[in-house]
Amino acid sequence: MPDITILDGYATNATTSGIGVLEVATDAQTQQGVTSSIPLAVTPSSLKFKLGDQYQYSVMLCDGPSNVLQASNIGTDGQVLIAKSSGHAQFASITAGSNITLTPGPNSLEIAASGGMPGGMTWVEISGSTKNPTVSGEGYFATNATSVTFTLPAAPSIGDTYKFANVSTAADGVIINYNASQYITFGNQTSTVTTGSLTSTAIGDIITITYFKSNQFIANAEQGNWTVV
What we know:
This protein has 229 residues and is an all-beta fold.
């Protein structure tokens, strides 16, 4: 069955050579490859869009009410079209935040959290007497028979989070220190700048500490009472 083109209410048989991309003009044009010459379109002067250069796998974008359409850049696997306040949107790669992995593929982008369960944390057992957390999203089981002293990072980023669980045989099995000029806010309590600490008071105590800004950490106890110094 031949292709049918409807123009001004009339049907005409179009040949294969007549199939393609045509420019939308401001006056009448004649379509080639049909059985007779019929006006293709009469476009009002208010409609001045025209198709610009087109590229395989690009996206056509509007450049204003009277300008030629512009093609975007050509994206690669996993890229997305990202807008900006002035100018054309472009295909670009998104950046993974802390504990996030991105796996791009043809027409796909897998986003996954790299931390384990529970709570999106990767848990590590600490049997020694000291540990300096360096990886945001890690949780620590303190199993030393006496206590484990943790020292928070000296140069954390906003949102960096660490979790501590006292599963040792001592009530004060977790002691959390920090570096110069730093401090911890725990509810309505604030630890001493530079030299302060938080300490568990019972076996089974669990606390999460997140860095805010300006040397301030925020603590949230999920279990137990903690001594603030």
